[in-house]
Amino acid sequence: MKLSFYPIKIKGKAEKVFKLCLKKKIKLSFAESCTGGLLSSLITSFPNSSKIFISGFITYSDLSKQKMIGVKSKTLKKYGAVSKEVAIEMVNGIWNKNKTNIALSITGIAGPTGQTKNKKVGLVYIGIKSKKGIEINEFSFKGNREEIRLASIGKSIDLISLVI
Q1: How far apart, in whole angstroms, are the C-alpha atoms of residue 67 and residue 84?
Q2: What would the pLDDT profile of 110-162 be if each residue is shown by its tens digit?
Q3: What are the b/e assignments for 89-100, b being 16+ CB within 10 Å?
Q4: Global pTM value
């Protein structure tokens, strides 16, 4: 029996990216918050994933962001865990921890709770770093918790494909 937790469209895009990474010997590392390891799980669902996947850090709490990947307490207090600034520190932290070609960070509010006056459910920041530089993307996804989390990993796969 073959299990797949991911929509066919996302799994298909991920497989193309995976095969391209294998072909080009590209190494990936992720720091995930609101997705709770879904992106790491997706990439490691393919055989031979150990050839391209270095590590995935699930940094769900502020403390884990600080201890595992070096996000500064000051940054978290000033901007909040769901911010461009934290996404930058997350992606830099994972980049610095590993010999990787592409590092990616995800932080957001998947809901149904957690929103504030200025930050609504569905707000997600995805940071990506490669030899081409660093880019932080802000998204406002719609839907329930599962849909927001899946949209986040789908967009992450798209972003990886752009820097391979």
Answers
A1: 19
A2: 999 999 999 999 999 999 999 999 999 999 999 999 999 999 999 999 999 99
A3: bbbbbbbebeeb
A4: 0.97
**Residue whose token pair is 């459910």:** 121
82 phi-psi bin (left φ>0, alpha ψ -120 to 50, beta other): beta
- What gap in Å lies between CA 114 and CA 133, rounded to an integer? 31
Residue 80's CB is within 10 A of a number of other CB atoms, namely 16
Confidence of residue 60 (pLDDT cuts 50, 70, 90): very high
